[in-house]
Amino acid sequence: MHFSTVTRDMEAFTASSLSSLGAAGGFPGAASPGADPYGPREPPPPRYDPCAAAAPGAPGPQPHAYPFAPAAGAANSAAEPEGPGASCAAAAKAPVKKNAKVASVSVQLEMKALWDEFNQLGTEMIVTKAGRRMFPTFQVKLFGMDPMADYMLLMDFVPVDDKRYRYAFHSSSWLVAGKADPATPGRVHYHPDSPAKGAQWMKQIVSFDKLKLTNNLLDDNGHIILNSMHRYQPRFHVVYVDPRKDSEKYAEENFKTFVFEETRFTAVTAYQNHRITQLKIASNPFAKGFRDCDPEDWPRNHRPGALPLISAFARSRNPVASPTQPNGAEKGLVAEGSRLWPASLRAPREDTR
């Protein structure tokens, strides 16, 4: 496998197969005008069939339909889905038969129970100028690949609809605030291990923990650019690295797309729903500093709230008593609300690695 082959396949896939990634809407379950986007809805199916890109000049995606047509002869458990996915065929004139190297590939979303829990509350993802990692992290388990074939794995994000939202704190719900802002530059995030053999991809969980979200339209770090207060649907793509010299001709048949509706989210610069904040703190290992310290971090007979906390903690950590500060707190302790914490255990910002 030559570098030129991989580069050629990447360019062909990005230019041809993902030409309609920036189209607004196109996803079943998008909120109707004036409807509460996080109102009750039926549990989403685990995955949807991939769809081939519409032919050049073909009409755009119809409302509540994927912008791609379903793959013919897909062999995974999501083949020929009923309901919303069944309308894929109307989006393109001629469905493209997928290459056997990708037709049998299937994907399992990891941490699905956690994603479902966030989805029920209305998932929010922080976007910053510098870029912020997603939590929950998008992780999948792959099956059905050719062990000896080369594949690239990548993700992109498409708008759920053409609306902008605001959070109503008095009712703890999201409301439509108007039309969507101008579309952000469409970007694709390639997994850093791409390309790799199918055997390597299948032997372990694939994690997109390097992916970062930003609202900086001038970002030059390759982060995914999103508009704050807009809803997005992550998509996962498996691309077969075709060794043929004219592989760009087969770009549309050499990839397969998977959509997990429970991973959709609203991009925000600060969490709006306090229940989302609580769930992120409780389930994110990098937010440990926001939680009460573990019992092992405190002397056995001096838990948080025990008295006298300051002097007991200081003596247990340092045989030499620390000088008392003018406000009565001992050196090395900082005020956090109504508690006093060791400076080393002060609540950190959420992970921004």
UniProtKB/TrEMBL annotation:
One of its GO terms (molecular function) is RNA polymerase II cis-regulatory region sequence-specific DNA binding. It holds the Pfam family T-box. GO terms for cellular component: chromatin; nucleus. Its main location: nucleus. Residues 24-68, 317-353 are annotated as: Disordered. It is found in: Nucleus. CDD domains: T-box_TBX1_10-like. It comes from Prolemur simus. This is T-box transcription factor 1. Keywords: Developmental protein, DNA-binding, Nucleus, Transcription, Transcription regulation. GO terms for biological process: anatomical structure morphogenesis; cell fate specification; positive regulation of DNA-templated transcription. PROSITE patterns: TBOX_1, TBOX_2, TBOX_3.
